[in-house]
Amino acid sequence: MSVFSRGFRGRRQEGPPGRVPPGQYLVDDFPVLSAGPTPETPVEEWTFTITGDVDAPRQWSWEEFLALPSETITTDIHCVTRWSKLDTVWEGVSVDTLLEGVDTSAEYVLAFCDGGYTTNLPLEDVTDGKAWVAVSYDGEPLEAEHGAPARLLVPHLYLWKSAKWIRGLQLLAEDESGFWEALGYHDRGDPWQEQRHWGD
Amino acid sequence: MGRLSWQPATVTDAFAETPQVRTLELDVTGWTGHLPGQHVDVRLTADDGYQAARSYSIASAPEEKGPRLTVERIDAGEVSPYLVDELRTGDRIEVRGPIGGFFVWHAGLGGPVLLLAGGAGIVPLAAMLRHRVASGSDAAVRLIYSSRSLGEVIYREELDRLATHEGVDVVHTLTREQPAGWRGFGRRVDRELLAEAAWPASSSPLTYVCGPTAFVEKVAGSLVQLGYDPRTIRTERFGPTGR
Lengths: 200, 243
Ligand SMILES: Cc1cc2nc3c(=O)[nH]c(=O)nc-3n(C[C@H](O)[C@H](O)[C@H](O)COP(=O)(O)OP(=O)(O)OC[C@H]3O[C@@H](n4cnc5c(N)ncnc54)[C@H](O)[C@@H]3O)c2cc1C
Known about the structure:
The complex is a heterodimer. By secondary structure, chain A is mainly beta.
């Protein structure tokens, strides 16, 4: 049985049907969640690497990365701290493009980032047009606290999976917990199933 | 660990800390304790079933009665004005938690510990400080706490009392308004203030920074510039950003 809150009305900005997952509310701004200081890697030192279970690792410099075919993505995002933001616009390189021609038997990836942050995902959650490495938000280069110069974007999962300050993907045969996943957050993080914490 | 579920919580006490901030003491069915720095999600339900939930840090030490929450009223907000202005002793809400395993300090981690709070960001850091004293730990702890004015300092008298304990220091800075004869700092926390008031980077403190996003960005960035190891700095951001 629910506990009713005497006199509580709420704002009831419920959003278009089917767009706001359970337990989420809509925001217009863009709150920030990070575990530590914002890393500031100069783009001259930045690289993006595909490693792990691959025949030969791949690496791009910032310039090479920007030369890859990119896409504009308009999508809703959902943070485990309960805010959702609709119709955000990003520019980025599809993970499919980064993995093109990579021969692997891996079923998982671990995204690794400046600052030591990692997050784990099943390979199928980042392929087939479901994930990007984004370099711009709302027509502007990413801001430092939002992941500059590049962040993963996996909009169908809670936003901690969209790792900021990303530097590469490690392909793995077996699932390995990332940073928040080892600290009590759900291994997969599907907002529609409210997979927030362990056991959800 | 089992699934976290929503638990009914009864408000056993509610009192003003400042004109904008109120502390709620809760009695939660089946509460199994927490670590200093953790938070809960709070859920409100309107009589027609509409619900809204937000996160609130646990203010109390594990050794104390509670949990207690301390909430700042965000004027245009959906949940915080209700918690600050409407909720009364005897009312019930729902909580889910405790949540969070990273922004946590307990006596077993030792010191020195450097705590940096902006505004309501004091809440989880105060839980750490209360625990430091209540547990009898001898870890050296220094709190640097930024408020706009003296009247907006949360837990002021209690912080004064905690600071009388050996090894506990509390440094205030008031960014907008300083009373006559004020002997603390009178400006925002920046690199110079940290160089003067914080444990030096060479003492390798465990560092916790909490407050509005802009405060956390500025302070954590300044600490890194001053040579603190980024891996020893843990942050929690409460507030919004521009866009
Ligand atoms: C892990 C965690 C712990 C938290 N602990 C605490 C705590 O101990 N005490 C506490 O008071 N709050 C805490 N917060 C913030 C809290 O969860 C809510 O975000 C806050 O109470 C605002 O909720 P609301 O429903 O009143 O406003 P909303 O309806 O969510 O927001 C209304 C408007 O106010 C803006 N806004 C939201 N937050 C702030 C802010 N802090 N300052 C200025 N503008 C803001 C929003 O951008 C929006 O435009 C914590 C947040 C997190 C993520």
